[in-house]
Amino acid sequence: MLLFSAALLAGFFFLIFSADFFVKGTSAIARNLGVSPLIIGLTIVGLGTSAPEMLVAGMASIQGNNGLATGNAIGSNIANIGLVLGSTALFTPILIKSSLLKRELPLLLTISIISYLLVIDGDLSRLDGLILIAGLAAFLYWLFRSAQQNKRQNADALATEFEDEIPTDLSNRSAFLYAITGLTGLIVSSKLLVWAAVNIAVAFGVSDLVIGLTIIAIGTSLPELAASIMSVVKKEPDLAVGNIIGSNAFNLLAVLCLPGLIRPGLVETQLISRDFPIMLGLTLLLLLFSYSANGEPKINRLKGATFMIFFVGYLSKVYLDTIGI
Prior knowledge:
By secondary structure, the chain is mainly alpha-helical.
């Protein structure tokens, strides 16, 4: 057990640093090629922050651990809103200025509902995976068009914040080395993480789904937590919310599709009856909290506490279900 725990911690450590290297390298390459910061932030950085979940889900699916793969996708979305945004808002209120985020939030809720409808029959088929991949292509196209329209209009607050975050001092050669190093690290660390998680699940007699929803989901959400807190510290609140919205959309479209494409099969009933509805509820709550009838909307400390209460309550529910109470 000590070996598996050490491997799990090592996997998380290298996964986080590898994801950072990968995002830094790919975003620097895109910037050097003249791609606008908003497009880089919405697409490349968005996919990059979901790279840990994608690699873990892919490795788990290849090894036949679909519960771990699907649990990671849904659990990460729950952790991103409940834990990451909740704790960030408790640290300091998050003021939302970006009009693009206000258009992206209803789209995230729509993606969440469609994803739920695809698995509500208890099966994640290859067709379901293809539908999610098609949705990913459509979502990327929408992001690209929105960024282009935004460029022709007044600069969005989110565009300015992305511009400040993308590296400007990396040559193409250095950026390429960052990207390759990050990708290699992601592959190795995700394989180590899945191996450790599966063995821990076996040792404790719990399902892969529970491990994916809790330990793995929280661990792969740590980059978003660090990024969100740093964003508000640097007075870039829209970036904190934008990272979560983008990551959650990519988790559903680019992560949840992988079990369906690689190893189609049944979806555990608890994911459908308990975890998906919680994710949908938190997404709807985020949408409601992000609008205001008077002035600019703000996710204040009370709203952050509400997210945290939901998250702690959810973890308690998973624990009680696991021990059979």
